[in-house]
Amino acid sequence: MNIEGFLQTLPIALRGMGGIFVVMAIVYLSIKLVNIFFADNGNKNE
Amino acid sequence: MELIFDNLFNLELQQVVMWIIGGILIYLAIKKDMEPTLLLPIGFGAILVNLPFSGAVTQVIDGVKEVGVLDVLFDAGIANELFPLLLFIGIGAMIDFTPLLTNPKMLFFGAAAQFGIFFTFSLASLLGFDIKDAASVAIIGAADGPTSIFVANYFNSKYLGAIIVAAYSYMALVPIIQPFVIRRITTREERLIRMDNVKSSVSRSVKILFPIFITIIAGLFAPRSVALVGFLMFGNLIRECGALNILSETAQKELPNLITILLGITVATKMQAEYFLTRETLMILGLGLIAFVFDTVGGVLLAKIINIFARNKVNPMVGACGISAFPMSARVIHKMGLEEDPHNFLLMHAVGANVAGQIASVIAGGLIMNLVA
């Protein structure tokens, strides 16, 4: 068991998980904004 | 005659074991339909490279280096990460992001379902893998073959063969792994939750802008993921722009087919007995399974947490679709929903979370490269 290595990974794992949520939140806001500015006014892409 | 039979005496037991493993992969691909496009070439390649003094891989014979064609392909397509990137153009061209664009909340399930990657990263490190190998093993939890290849190769992991076999095997086992895990961490009442319908159309402008925006965001926040995200989104832009239908068709069919043929057999260069038949390979197979399990747990738990506060409840099974195994995970959850309640149609929500998982897994790959490098 490599306890030292394990402890070394914890902050990386936390930052990684946090980072994904931050990036996804930014993507979420972008989609919301784009959906507002380019709303579907019957111009569907089917 | 002696010359003809000479090579027989060079055969080692380990190589025969690798033939058996190759045979099992071929059997699973053909008989069980487990990711046949990859497991069959990998299985055949495992036999090809484990013949004594196989001319398919580089050998030093009598002090003379004879370059094998599979090593040439490896250097040309995997060592420089070209094959997984080209495959991503095809994947991007195949994905319709509409269910996500109409319900972008699903993005957060994509994020939560990457939990298995980081859990496995720490666990692999605890079990003695060095930090770069731990990251390479953990990326099996991306549930996405090209991302696994890209990241493991970036860290120059000697376990590339085992990682890829684990990644593709567990992706094929999603219909078994996910229902098993979900049933153990959800109640029947939760699995019966019905979700509101969402509007089903978005404007063409949104569909065209989406891949461009994602590429910019990924480039700004996880720069090492930008090649993966960029190629994925380039494929999607070709699909959605409406002006490149012929290219879109090629990107969806011929391109990934060609790359897949070469990718599978080239990966086998890392399945030579001396690299593959190790204790670490068994550990990687176990850690890969743990990664998939905790990906599922992460997505389900986020849905449960949301349900504590939200008025409109989320079926926790949809959270599990945040893993990237697209579209299998969405299909599995849709089927599970119908088994619980024949009138509960979760498909659109499940597909939304599933394509979110595709994006999140690539971002996770980029982040882990940024953080560990």
Describe this structure in words.
The complex is a heterodimer of chains A (46) and B (373). Chain A is built from 1 helix and no strands. Chain A is an all-alpha fold and 46 residues long. Chain B is an all-alpha fold. Chain B has helices at residues 2-6, 13-31, 36-48, 69-78, 82-94, 98-102, 107-112, 115-126, 131-138, 145-154, 160-172, 174-185, 188-191, 204-221, 226-241, 245-252, 254-267, 273-276, 279-309, 316-320, 328-340, 347-372, and strands at 59-61, 64-66. Chain B has a two-stranded antiparallel sheet with strand order 1-2. The chains are: A mainly alpha (46), B mainly alpha (373). The A-B interface holds A 1-3, 5-6, 8-10, 12-17, 19-28, 30-32, 34-35, 38-41, 43-46 and B 100-101, 104-105, 107-108, 110-112, 114-115, 117-119, 121-123, 125-131, 134, 201-207, 209-210, 213-214, 217-218, 221-222, 240, 242, 356, 359-360, 363-364, 367-368, 371-372.
User: How many extended strands of chain A?
Assistant: 0
What kind of assembly state do the chains in view correspond to?
Answer: heterodimer
Main sheet overview of chain B: 2 strands, antiparallel
Rounded mean pLDDT score of chain A:
85
Identify low-pLDDT runs of chain B: none
What is the number of E strands of chain B?
A: 2
> What is the helical fraction of chain B, as a range of percent?
over 70%
List low-pLDDT spans of chain A: none
Strand and helix order of chain A:
H
Instruction: Determine the most extensive contact between two protein chains.
Output: A-B, 37 and 51 residues
Strand residue content of chain B: under 5%
Distance between the termini of chain B: 54 Å
Q: Strand-residue fraction of chain A?
A: under 5%
User: What does the largest sheet of chain A look like?
Assistant: none
Give helix % range of chain A: over 70%
Provide the structure class of chain A: mainly alpha
Order of helices and strands of chain B: HHHEEHHHHHHHHHHHHHHHHHHH
